[in-house]
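Subject: Sanity check before I submit

Could someone independently write out the structure tokens for this chain? I want to compare against mine line by line before I put it in a report. The sequence has 411 residues.
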Amino acid sequence: MSYQSAIDFLFPRTTQIKFGLDATRALLVALGDPQDRFAAVHVAGTNGKGSVSALIAAALQETGFRVGLYTSPHLISFRERIRVDGVPISEAAVAAWTSHLQPAIEASEATFFEATTAMAFAHFAARDVDIAVVEVGLGGRLDSTNVITPLACIVTHIALDHQKYLGDTVEEIAREKAGIAKPGVPFVIGEPDPDLAEVVRRAAEDVLRGRDARAALVPVMVPPGATWSKRLGLVGRHQRRNAAVAAVALDELPVPFRPTNYVAAAAFARVRMPGRFDQRGKWLFDVAHNPDSMRALTAAIAEVKPLRPIHALVSILGDKAWPEMLVELDHAIDAGWLTIAPSADTRKWDLGWLERWLSDPARPAAVARWRLVPDFQQALSEVQSGAGTVLVTGSFHTVGDVMQELGLEAA
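---
Independent answer below. Compare away.
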């Protein structure tokens, strides 16, 4: 099987979303349970989990460990999801693992994410990682990654997203995220809202008692106002909060995995993440894809003050709260082009609804100038004309498609 054949086999399964661990466990049994051959850290949350995962992985690598990092989604290449010491999985390895797993994937009717999770754990074991940082895909309780027994579990920040699958309130979503809790394992709660953090804590206790009445939760509450005060490679106040959460989690790891403060600070200062307030010349890329992350983006724009005018290319998935996102973005930019990212065509927003919304006199008065340009190439051509900053945002699809079009790497 070639790499392209593997991708062609895996990607049609992205339309399948199901909750439960049976298929993942079946795949892992077929692989000899590779998840039992390395230590792990498990990270959940609506926003911030990717950044916290990257920060923890960087600190562990700085300490001298061989570190696996499993994240999602990717920007340009599938290979970005599975890394060892920062190096993406090779095309040959993707092809080999997919070929090996194909019978089990078909027999268990595994989804894309279930197959990818099994592949990641197999790759980490084969590459002899000491520890892996594993980001939850969706939710937590029934997410495919919830088959590991980690050294620490982390829930970052809770906000409304994926309501179709996780619930219509932040409390319901918090309970799903809390499902990664394990008895006797530090459960780090990074949610800055004290009331919601308490919801997460109580939900985690309920989860454990539901499995075993004797199971004990080990809650570790990150103080609501805690932020990272030292040098940080990531931009924005929200990233300083993420770094504080990562630092607390690292302090909870057992010896020898626990890094010194000096090592963690050195690693945090160097961390870069593609697509997170990622400035490259006149281009600014940010994968903000829900109202909470859009607020973090606009706050970072106010803090950093990129060169004006700011022209934004925006494409948001149809199942997101895009009106709220656009209202938030409106006051931070000078002009916006609304388009459809090619890789998101099957999940695109409703253009008729969008056109009616733009012309609706009842919506909040716009500060920026807005244009609806469905043709991606035309929108991309128009948005970059002139001086200033070009912001690309709205989804991972949008950022990845523009990066690919410009010949940039997600690195």
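---
OP: Matches mine. For the report I'm noting this point. The two ends are 27 Å apart (CA to CA).
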